[in-house]
Amino acid sequence: MATLELFDSLPLSRANHWHRVGAPGGYEWWEFDALDETSGMRVILRFHDGFAFDPEYARRYDAYRRRPTVHSPPVPRQYPCVQFTVLENNSVVAANTIRFGEGAFQADAKSGAITVGDNRLELRGGETRVQFQGGDPAVSAEMIFRSRFPSLPIEQAIFVSEMGGLHRWVLPQPQCDVEGQINFNGRQIRFGGVGHHDHFYGTGPIGPSVRRWLRGRAILPRRTVAFHICTDHGSGIDHFNAVAADDRHVARIDGGGCSCDWNGRTWRGLTFPTAVNFGQTLLLRRPRIVDWSLNSLQVLFDAYVDGETCQAWGEIAYPARLHKGLVHCGVMKWLEG
User: Fold this and answer.
1) 299 contact partners, CB below 8 Å, separation of at least 6
2) Distances from the Cα of 58 to the Cα of 205, 213, 277, angstroms
3) Strand 187-202 versus strand 105-107 pairing type
4) Which end is more exposed in the chain, N or C (fewer Cβ atoms within 10 Å of the end residue's Cβ)?
5) How many Å from the N-terminal Cα to the C-terminal Cα in the chain?
6) What residues does 276 pair with on adjacent strands?
7) Which of 252, 267, 272 is nearest to 317 (CA)?
8) What backbone phi and psi angles, to 5 degrees, belong to 78?
């Protein structure tokens, strides 16, 4: 029987490059968040090799696990995807999830270039160039993310041990200067601000052992805090992970004194936090849902970072719902303005 290579293990200096994940149910994506306070624009982009939250991907993986001699294993290359969200003055003005056919994802290991259809990333150490176009109405963007200071990426595990497989979070550019241009609705907007870039990969699905997963960041002019809260499905215990970056260094926030009140609930029964504390370093309050699908919420919080205030963006996914048949292919909703 033929065997599958799970992924390429890369040195830390190349941790932001493609890991060639081949494991059934695996995934890898690169995420970018850019904020221009002068214009009030915020742009969030994701490039996926294996869209981890695709209901069809989850359905095929579960069928493969039940009858592996009957069903072929679904792998990341079959589910390429690009996502974007554009906010203006904290309101979503354009958003979409664009799925592509098998083979649309391409990566050049030598140059660090990654393409999904006509969308392109160029990974150049301390500088990343992003070109995006798609959606209806059409949105396009060209941006350059430049790291504030040279350093090796940070890489660490995410999720609880019951997940199975390897699930990693890479922070190659936690604090960036960003410049570029956004085009939508007949407008051309020059962009200049701050940003954040991180990267996720895993050798299996984000599966039913995860009840919900909140990830996001609070971006300030001179500091960024990126965070995760993963809730174990069986015990309901929250697992906290946060990293703070400024112009000089990157450090993990001590997990002591962390708490999350999951008291909010949508009419579809999706829970969301009304208050989050990462010790005294980061406090999240007053959640406002700005976008949604049947399996996720995008939320803005009032954030307090060591006495400074800003708007923190967060996305909450509900992986267990994908593997319980609660979300079906063809009924996922993504707002388009």
Assistant:
1) 216, 272, 287, 288, 289, 290, 313, 314, 315, 316
2) 8, 16, 32
3) unpaired
4) N
5) 49
6) 260, 284
7) 272
8) -85, -10
φ/ψ (deg, to 5) at 56 = -65, -40
pLDDT band at 324 (very low <50, low <70, confident <90, very high): low
Which tokens hold the place of 289? 């849902």
> What was the pLDDT predicted at 295?
86
For the residues 131-144, what does the mean pLDDT come to? 91
Residue type present at position 187 = R
Q: Is the pTM of this model over 0.85?
A: yes
CATH number of 15-322, picked from 3.30.70.270, 2.10.220.10, 3.20.20.210, 2.40.370.10: 2.40.370.10
Say how far residue 118 (Cα) sits from the centre of its chain: 20
Phi, then psi, of 227 in degrees rounded to 5 = -145, 160
DSSP conformation letters of 130-162: EEEEETTTTEEEEEEEEESS--PPEEEE-S-GG
Whether the pLDDT of residue 333 is over 90: the answer is no
Is residue 24 within 8 A of residue 59, CB to CB? The reply is no
Torsion region of 306: left, alpha or beta (phi above 0 gives left; psi -120 to 50 gives alpha): left
| pLDDT on residue 162 | 57
